[in-house]
Design a protein that fits this description.
Layout lengths: L1 H5 L8 H11 L3 E3 L6 E3 L1 H20 L3 E2 L5 E3 H4 L3 H7 L4 E5 L2 E3 L6 E3 L4 E8 L4 H11 L8 E10 L13 E11 L2 H21 L6 E4 L11 E8 L5 E11 L1 H5 L3 E3 L5 E3 L1 E8 L1 H10 L16 E5 L4 H20 L4 E3 L7 H10 L4 E5 L1 H6 L1 E6 L5 E5 L3 H26 L1 E3 L3 H10 L2 E5 L4 H11 L2 E6 L4 H4 L2 E2 L6 E2 L2 E5 L3
Parallel strand pairs: 3-9, 17-18, 17-19, 22-23
Antiparallel strand pairs: 1-2, 4-8, 5-8, 6-7, 9-10, 10-16, 11-12, 11-24, 12-13, 13-16, 14-15, 19-20, 20-21, 23-27, 24-27, 25-26
Helix pairs in contact: 3-7
Length: about 500
């Protein structure tokens, strides 16, 4: 394991390679036999499950229910909403046949040409079209509204340049799709769900985010407004970590979803959609982890506490098992996930390195002398600090330590973001600063032409127009590129 750690590329040497090494060495995921698709391994999936469970609770607290819609979408459905099909056409995987047969020469199987589908089917890149075709059957009256549905699913977007968790052809996500009687309700819903994402990112992932609205160029295909949470990674690049879309009546009109309102008038329904994906795993890794491996926030760590006994003989092991087993059971009774590792097939040093690599927040170690003194060594993963403490009240000590670690890694990430957020007034300053990385607040004239020019010349994009900003950022000024009037500063960065 020491060799494994030694082979972990340093962040300062090659951040991209460090990330790839860490995902594989920490047993989170690996490449699959299908190009661009990944295998999420049990430890990685355990983190995703904790994310999923918490988000699902938050959705249900806001009145949402889960449903499931088909993986396959008729091709004609994607033609109904012009912006939507244009946005996803280049990423779609298409099913054309429904049967295989044995090759005449015995070499294997081939596609049966007689089994061609009358209409091709698209593996869902997102589900707005299939869901709105379904909602047409569910909605007749204002009494049927609102519909607040979410689905946990996989989607396929044919990405050519892939990276584990951050960008894969197939990924896991949730997608909420809601229907409302009024524009106001739908806009309120879209913003409410963005704040749910923001709260989850900050309180559970310990990732500080900027909440805001996307520029027209960066909107979701088919949306009137897209709201986003943007996080800053340790290499100075932004990561869009969740989006919520106000879809207006675009999909209702495309699929003729109308309802009779309280005045007995026929109206089109108002819509939202919103989603986060396994990309959040990438955000978690890149925001907190270090050259020793993962650093996981306790609230999302599959193992929050690992306990390792160090013993010389079977008699000593039996005494340690009794003592440490009782501590483990008390911690579990407090709702803390504990692993008691008394396996004899790995040396203690190997175990220590392995649990550091996997980001376990707290490690408790007890040897023979500790047993005599009623003490144990406590190591916290976020700072790698060790302390010898008494076993009396150790459970409460560990519980408080987990809370402290959760807050500490959030504050560390927040400090990094604050230190790497800069205001610039000229395009020359902007070009210099963007090479250093980080968030940049700058004036923009509001035109897609200027936005496109900045993107082409610097590879930077407008991440969002932030909801919250200081007075200086809200003061009108001049566009850094054209000198034309600008209402306020917007947030730029290079991004994943």
């Amino acid at each position: 394991m020491a060799k494994e750690l030694k082979e972990l590329t340093k962040r300062s040497e090659n951040y991209s390679q460090w990330y790839n090494d860490l995902v594989v060495k920490a047993d989170l995921a690996e490449q699959s036999a299908v190009r661009g698709c990944m295998v999420i391994k049990p430890y990685g999936y355990a983190i995703w499950e904790k994310m999923q469970r918490q988000l699902d609770d938050m959705f249900k607290e806001t009145g949402h229910v889960n449903a499931y819609f088909p993986l396959l979408i008729p091709k004609s459905y994607l033609s109904r909403e012009a912006d939507h099909v244009e946005g996803f056409a280049k990423e779609c995987a298409v099913v054309t046949h429904y049967r295989l047969k044995n090759a005449p020469d015995g070499s294997g199987v081939v596609v049966d040409p007689a089994a061609r589908l009358e209409e091709e089917l698209i593996i869902r890149p997102t589900s707005e079209t299939i869901i709105w075709s379904t909602y047409k059957n569910w909605i007749q009256s204002y009494r049927d509204l609102p519909i607040l549905c979410n689905q946990w699913a996989n989607v396929m977007r044919w990405e050519m340049r892939t990276r584990l968790f951050l960008r894969t052809a197939e990924f896991l996500w949730q997608e909420g799709h809601t229907a409302h009687a009024t524009r106001e309700e739908a806009e309120e819903e879209a913003q409410r769900m963005l704040h749910v994402y923001g709260n989850f990112a900050e309180k559970y992932m310990a990732v500080p985010v900027v909440k805001g609205v996307k520029s027209a160029n960066e909107r979701f295909a088919g949306a009137l407004d897209t709201y986003t949470i943007e996080a800053l990674m340790q290499d100075g690049k932004a990561l869009q970590s969740g989006t919520s879309h106000f879809l207006g009546q675009n999909f209702a009109k495309a699929f003729d979803v109308q309802f009779v309102d309280k005045e007995n008038q026929l109206q089109y329904v108002w819509a939202t959609s919103w989603g986060v994906s396994t990309r959040l795993m990438g955000a978690l890794i890149m925001t907190h982890s270090d050259d020793n491996g993962l650093v996981l926030p306790p609230k999302l760590a599959p193992i929050q506490v690992v306990i390792v006994p160090i013993y010389k003989n079977e008699e000593q092991l039996a005494a340690l098992n009794e003592k440490l087993g009782a501590i483990a059971n008390k911690l579990k009774a407090m709702g803390i996930s504990v692993k008691y590792d008394n396996a004899d097939n790995k040396r203690p040093g190997f175990k220590f390195a392995e649990y550091e690599l996997k980001g376990v927040p707290v490690r408790l170690v007890m040897g023979g002398r500790d047993l005599e003194n009623n003490t144990m060594e406590v190591m916290r993963r976020d700072t790698l600090e060790k302390q010898t403490v008494t076993c009396d009240g150790i459970e409460e000590y560990v519980k408080n330590l987990l809370d402290e670690i959760q807050e500490n890694i959030f504050q560390k990430a927040l400090k990094y973001r604050e230190e790497n957020t800069t205001k610039v007034d000229t395009y020359e300053e902007f070009k210099e600063q963007i090479e250093k990385g980080g968030f940049i607040l700058a004036h923009w004239d509001g035109t897609p032409e200027t936005e496109e020019r900045i993107k082409e010349e610097t590879k930077a994009t407008i991440r969002c127009i932030p909801f919250e900003a200081d007075e200086e950022s809200l003061t009108p000024g001049k566009c850094m590129v054209t000198g034309k009037p600008s209402a306020r500063r917007v947030l730029f960065a290079r991004a994943y």
